[in-house]
Amino acid sequence: MPRVKGGVISLKRRRNVLKRAKGFRHGRSKKERAAKESLVHAGKQAFANRRDKKNEFRQLWIVRLNAAVRDNGHKSYSTFIAKLKKQGVMLDRKVLATLAEKNPEVFTRISKKVS
User: Fold this and answer.
1) pLDDT digits (tens, 9 = 90+) for 86-105
2) Is the pLDDT of residue 115 over 80?
């Protein structure tokens, strides 16, 4: 069996790693080992932050809803949500926050129906 040298594949692998590390600072964009390690860490953080983003948006919607709910005469966000569930209104926080921001008159009608 003939001997196969891995030069072409190694070069291709190195090129791909450095291409993905473009824009990193210092040796992380120039040296293969540093670039590879920083890509692994970047991947872990990207995975975790995709999950965190969902929590951050939910918190934002809750803050917006709380402000809108108090403007419409309700005691608090939590009592408003409890009344919504009891009434069987199946709107999620994202939709409610969007309505409160973009169409306040529609949100006012919903909040009057709930109270």
Assistant:
1) 999 999 999 999 999 999 99
2) no
Q: What is the pTM of this model?
A: 0.75
Task: Please report the domains of the chain, with CATH numbers, ordered by start residue.
Answer: 9-114 (1.10.1900.20)
Provide CB contacts within 8 A for 66, sequence distance 6+.
76, 77
| Tokens of residue 6, six digits | 């891995």
Q: What HEC string does the chain produce?
A: CCCCCCHHHHHHHHHHHHHHCCCCCHHHHCCHHHHHHHHHHHHHHHHHHHHHHHHHHHHHHHHHHHHHHHHCCCCCHHHHHHHHHHHCCCCCHHHHHHHHHHCHHHHHHHHHHHC
Residue type at position 21: A
